[in-house]
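Aim 2, interim progress. The first record below pairs a target sequence with its structure tokens.
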Amino acid sequence: MSEEPVLIQERRGSVVCATMNRPHALNALDAALRAQLNLFWQQFRDDPELRVAIITGAGGRAFTTGRDLKETARLNAKGERPAYELEGAYGYPGEYVLGKPVIAAVDGYCLAAGLLLALTSDIRIASDRSRFGNPQVTRGRGTRVPYELARVGVAHATVMDMTLSGEPIDAAQALQAGLVSRVVAPEQLMPTAWALAEKISGNSPTVVTGIKRAYEMGVFELPMNEARRVWANVTGGMMSSQTADSIEGARSFAQKRSADFAS
């Protein structure tokens, strides 16, 4: 009997969903899964027909609990390191200039490197049974999660509490902290993720790509005056009223119909 793939893909039009499929290990990120994630992000980036990606985990117990520490322990015992460490290719969407948005649909535990994967996605939605945490401090492992939490707008006190205590927060706390934008019942998580992805996919590609480009180039983190100065150039001219999308938007509004963006 052949083994199930560690990453399952489903494509609907211009949206693709990748499901991490190691439920027996709470979708822990071993070398094989990380390799498939790296390949997935590259394919998503390079496919002109795809506009939005969803990343989620199988099983209902975990999005992913992060690094597969059992695999790491086995390698450490032999004096070895995992290939993804040596290559610096960890499987996070933030490692790539995608130019397209990524939605993390979180159900269950989202911990450590799994939290980092979610944080480097653009939008995070969660089921109400989800828990978010950074327990590396309890295992002596370094982490850049504190920076990433602060970067997405989580308050300093919450960042320090999560990363110094190692204790997780629940979905309601994550929503209050701005870590996620929506919390839904578990059975509504994937329908919500697909509906949001399809909504974004149907919006102006020029504007969606422009906003994503600005984010990837760090414009959101610049001082206000500097960000305003470079915004138009960085976002690829989306501010122009003469782009094909802008012209179609005005025309469709005047004709009282939905816009049909061809770009």
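The second target in this work package is listed in the same format:
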Amino acid sequence: MPSSGSLPKPEFFKNDLIGGIWKVEGELGSGGCGVVYRVASNVVTKSGEKKTIVAAMKAEAIDLDGSYGETLNAEVVVLRRMQWSEHVCRLYAGGRLSPSVNIMIMSMVGRALSWVRKQCPEQKFTLSTAMRIAIQCLHAIQHLHSIGYLHRDVKASNYALGTFPNGLRDVHLLDFGFARAYVKRSADGRMRHRRARRKAPFLGTQRYCSINAHMKLEQGRRDDLWSFLYMIVEMVTGKLPWKSVKGDEAVEMKAQIQG
């Protein structure tokens, strides 16, 4: 099913109140599937202390004709099941705000790893830095796989550092809009792998996706790991061999690496 990228993006204004709790402070950015706003809420802790929570709110338009998939609802499901992991954002709220808008409110993160890499000399990390980052990135993928989901778009721009002052060394996995369950509960109550489709839609980013994704075959856990490997190579070397090529030539270069 196509995404909602061609629908009008939801629009909110400064001081708009969301759910009677969250106040819109401004727009953080926009993408193919919606808009991200900075929101804030005043809460009282268990000790009676007043505290302001600043968060990010993703908003997605709903196609009332049903022609476009609602990626934000799927993202909320995955993020809710991942709240035990230190490598994802905290989920404060998520669901349908109105008949035409879905929202998700989550904790703020810092800069994406892709941005951080490009600020380094020769646009690459030192080997020790790349390996420390890789360990956290791999743990995040492992946590996602452990709840029965694939990410299907692993890349540095979908990882971000935490926020100042205590989270700058923490890595968070983002954007579960392409996530898909690879297991399901069978009639006997046991969890089993879903039957692979003969053809699957292309999902991911060409520079980082696996050969299976290029060939529109069903993706599995190993495909997330191929994307992870390409991402780490780019962190260490500054670029991938197929950065400037497209289509079949990139597939051939990836096939040579796999042997």
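Helices lie at 71-81, 113-118, 127-146, 211-214, 221-237, 248-258. This observation will shape the mutagenesis plan for the next reporting period.
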